[in-house]
Specification:
Helices cover 9% and strands 54% of the residues. The chain is built from 3 helices and 13 strands. Strand 1 (3-7) and strand 2 (10-15) form a beta hairpin. The protein starts with a strand and ends in a 6-residue tail after the last strand.
């Protein structure tokens, strides 16, 4: 695996010849060896910018292609970093949460409405996460960012996990998500204010939850 966790806010990645990585622009802190960093303006492996673009909001998170032979230290904004290792399944994560990831992973976008129908669209609008979310699939590692640290909660068949949508970071596996309203839920047991929403995840996999409702 290419990532070594230096501390809760920094990771070191091993870059080897013939294998590329992608990182968020501005995330490189230091590096050793013969390593190159190339801005990813468009296209790329799997259509990186089409993957990363917020087509509805017209926003984009710029990426760098990292290649060569050496090690690179990554961090960004003092955010906590969680390394997620995929073994053939799919990770769903917001583009601006991505710090760095293996170039071997298959990249794409998913329209939120395709999971949970109309409620998937509502979730994007309510949480401010947008109607499209990023998917990374295959075997490899992903470093994601969060506020206040992250906990991994397993999702098992017949036992759904309910999450405050604003504390949601990512999920992977064969998981369905559904946004539902519960009058008074946020006021009584959540930490936010306003309308009461909870994100229900069911199936088999895991969800990552941050210890804050702050957006990146």
């Amino acid at each position: 695996m290419p990532f070594r966790e230096i501390n809760s806010k920094m990771v070191e990645a091993t870059v080897v010849p013939g294998q590329r990585m992608f990182s968020q622009r501005g995330a490189m802190l230091a590096y050793r060896g013969d390593v190159t960093f190339t801005p990813n303006m468009a296209g790329g492996q799997g259509g990186v910018m089409s993957m990363i673009g917020r087509r509805v909001a017209g926003e984009a998170t710029p990426l760098m292609t990292v290649e060569g032979n050496g090690t690179v230290m990554f961090g960004h904004g003092g955010h906590h970093i969680q390394v997620i290792r995929l073994t053939g399944d799919t990770l769903h994560v917001e583009a601006d949460r991505l710090l760095a990831f293996d170039g071997t992973l298959e990249q794409g976008t998913m329209f939120m409405g395709s999971q949970g129908g109309v409620m998937g669209m509502v979730r994007g609008q309510v949480t401010g996460q947008g109607l499209f979310t990023t998917t990374l699939k295959g075997h490899g590692a992903v470093a994601v960012m969060a506020h206040g640290g992250v906990i991994e909660l397993p999702i098992t068949p017949g036992r759904a996990v309910h999450v405050d949508p604003q504390a949601y970071v990512a999920h992977h596996g064969d998981v369905r998500n559904k946004l539902s309203t519960a009058l008074g839920w946020r006021d009584m047991v959540g930490r936010g204010s306003g309308e009461a929403f909870q994100l229900e995840l069911s199936g088999s996999g895991a969800v990552y939850v941050q210890a804050s409702e702050e957006k990146l």
